[in-house]
Amino acid sequence: MMRPRKWSDPGWMLAPTTILLIVFFIAPIGIAVYQSFFSWDLLTPPKAVGGANYLAIFKSGELLRVTGRTLFFSAMVVTGAMSIGLALALLLNRRGLWFSFVRSAVFSAYVVSWVAVALLWLWILDPDRGIVAKGLHVAGVSSVKLLNHPDTVLPVLAGVTVWKITGYAMIMFLTGLQAIPNEVIEAARLDGAGAWSRFRFIIWPMLRPTGTFVGTTSLVISFQAFDVVRVMTQGGPARASTLFVYAIYESIFMNLRVGTASALTVAFFVVLLSLSWLQIRAWRQKA
Amino acid sequence: MTVSRRALIAGLGSSALLACKKKAIGGRQVARLWFCYGGNNRVVLLDLVNKFNELQSKAFVEPVFQGDYFESLAKLRTAIAAGVPPTFSHVLGEVIPYLSTAGVLEPLDDYPGARNLDFVKALAQHGAFENGDKHAMVALPFNRSTPIMYTRKDMMDEYRLRAPQTWDELLSAAKRLYRSKQDGLRWGFEVPIDWWFWLAMVGQAGGRVIEPSGRITLGGDAGVKALKFWQSLVHEHKVMRPPPGRDFNAWDAANTDFLAGRAGITWTSTAYLRYIEKNAKFPVVTCPLPGDVKRSVPTGGTFFVMLKDVPQAEKVAAWSFLKWMCEPEQTIEWATRTGYLPVTNTAINRLRESGYYDKHPNDWVAYEQLEHADPWPWSTTLFRIERDIVNPQLEDAILTNRSAVDTLREAREEAEEPS
Amino acid sequence: MKIKARLFTSGFIHVLAGVVALLWLFPYAWMTLTSFKSFDEIIQRPTALLPGSPNLSAYREVFSQVPVGRYMLITLWVATAIALIQIALALPAGYALAKLRFRGNGLAFGLVLACLLIPTQMTFVPIFLMFSKLRLVNSLTSLILPFGASALGTFMVRQALLSVPDEVIEAARLDGASEFTIVYRVLAPMLKPTLIAIFLVSFVFHYNDYFWPLVMTTDDSVRTLPLGIALLREPGTGVRWDVVMAGNVILSLPMIALFSVSQRYLILGLTKR
Predict the structure, then answer these.
(1) Quick check: C221 contacting B, CB < 8 Å?
(2) Smallest CA–CA separation between A35 and chain C, in Å?
(3) Fewest beta carbons within 10 Å, which of A158, A183, A218, C75?
(4) Is this prediction's pTM over 0.90?
């Protein structure tokens, strides 16, 4: 740390960043809170309605349903991405061109756009001509529900999301694995520890911080899921895949209900803040 | 570093070019038209737009594709709110009372020739809405349709069936046409789960979604009866395919199944007439929807609307296109190449005289069915009820077979809440 | 015996890795193969692996329906501009936070950390309202400006600068370099890997971004490629999967290419947070 040459130096250095951050991150939350007390359709003048918007999303059960759905979806994504990511990291943490190629293949999905991934899987899962439906048909399963039934749509969307982000989890775990000194593992091997106990007592404890970090990051990612919903299901069937962000989007842009959208945004803020708190804790542990 | 900075500055300059919105091309006034078609309809519309642009040298219509009706409408409403509306667009009939009441549409009555357009009453604003003539004319009928029943002649002959006249006849026809998985699955009947078709059945059962007093009843007993009929087709008789998706995915699936022989009878829009005829490997015969206590169909499709908040010069340019589109040649080209209904009486008479309907009896069925078309209530909540409430509820009720009475009671309660 | 078992295990692991690769690569292959088929073929033989007569008609169709070049240019422009502005702003901010002692340093750093936790999904409604009041919806400004300052980028620059010794800066000051020169000429080159990582992560994210352009644009004057490609799915008359997949190939190819040359930096950018 050193003294600035001129007292004004920190000012110009930080001004653009702080102004932009305040205008585009902090102020919007205030605006959302303010707007949540109005009923407004963007086209006709707004009406002050007090807490009616909050009451409405509570009473109709929309808030509860949306939160529940999103948590359910997130739980699937987090467990899927973490367990598969860890398994792949363990499997692919080996020297050689072949493994490096496979690692890249898995990770590449993380780089391709969500739109491309969503469209691609929409085609693969198409109930009439999709290759999965045809495969299941050959296997004797003839009514393919997948994206077309309220009970199966979220697991399918979660599956697609896992496919997309597992590469990220894998990379994080690989970095964690590579930080474990080889000698420690070798020593355990010489002491006669089998593969499972090596993992259970040596590797996993050292990977724990990474695991927490990956877990919370994928939790936050999955909580923000939107593109897959928008492209693949538009929140259907029967709203079964209307996740939080899509609910907000739908209420403002499809239904022009700014107040409802703002109330949902505030609720989203509260939920996400609690999740982020978990994330910060994980970060502290990692640091 | 210096090179990249120069590149940056050059890039900054070009960014202005990237986002430029054309106001005039070669001295011609540009009018931006937002449209929502894919496939054949898009081709036909773009052909007409090009023709118009070549034909005269004052106005230039620039078409912009905006996704399906709902996406496009969402964009239109946000663009109006954000002060960047297009000159004109076409929107679903159900949303016109709302947009008109919000005061964002340009009244068209005083544009030259506007009062002399001889639209088919059931399709134009004054006939397609209850008291539609008591409001300033803000909408010109463009692609207008009704739901219609598509059957296959070969199959109807094979099973010796006639066009179903009642719901019961539809059910028994569907049962006859159904084929189980072992024999190669074929649904007896398929229809997209959309409130449009439900509305037709509510009307047929003698109900209305919104009473003239403005009270939202969602058809009362008639609404329940219609929903129950659908549920029984799916769950009790298992002759109708459970809904495969939302919005136009559902329509797409019904069309695809019918064309692939996986559905014996389907209801869909007259809009798909040309598409289905062209792609079917069997003779297609359309018939009017069956009736219950009476015959009834809603009209559907879109109207052209002009936005109020745009420069007058753009509006004038847009009007010249709209007026041209209402001339019989264009109306006929649009209708015959797509399957939508011709919107002016002149066009219909001309088609009739030319013997078109003798060659295309399917088109005539669609036109004749207009006799049973019921107008929409002029209600600002109409679109919200459709989109926000009824459609998801219908989908849910039919997929999960939950009580039709409860479903519609809930929907009614939701509809009565302030937006 | 033991060696045999080892060999067997090793073979098994190679094969298992192959299955994994297949799970991730087959979808891309399927996408590419579909894009070379004709629509008739897709209808008649939807599961045929290879196109009967490979052709480019789907690509031609994409180009005729979507101004691919213009959308691509807009997308690249937006993604590049955002990434460059982020770096340009993060450098001095990160420098002030890491190296300068002044009142409010802690507060400013707290702001950066707080913003790290606020995703755009939470701010889009108010920002849309803000821009619509300023008549800025559907402009490049609305696509670029909200991302001009990156909390993550600032944070990463600060962290990286913490490990640069103060002496470097003191020496530069003695040489008479201005603070501006120190930030952009002396420190920036030292942070090259970090800056490349910030650039790549940001560029990839904004090239692919669907959400923000979807809510901020209303028509095609500033439409980005992901939006254009998503619009290829046409309503009602049968999805032309050959066309959609061709669009998908066009959309993903630049990212795959970028990924294959810069994987190392990308991973650095993701793991260094």
Answers:
(1) yes
(2) 8
(3) A183
(4) no
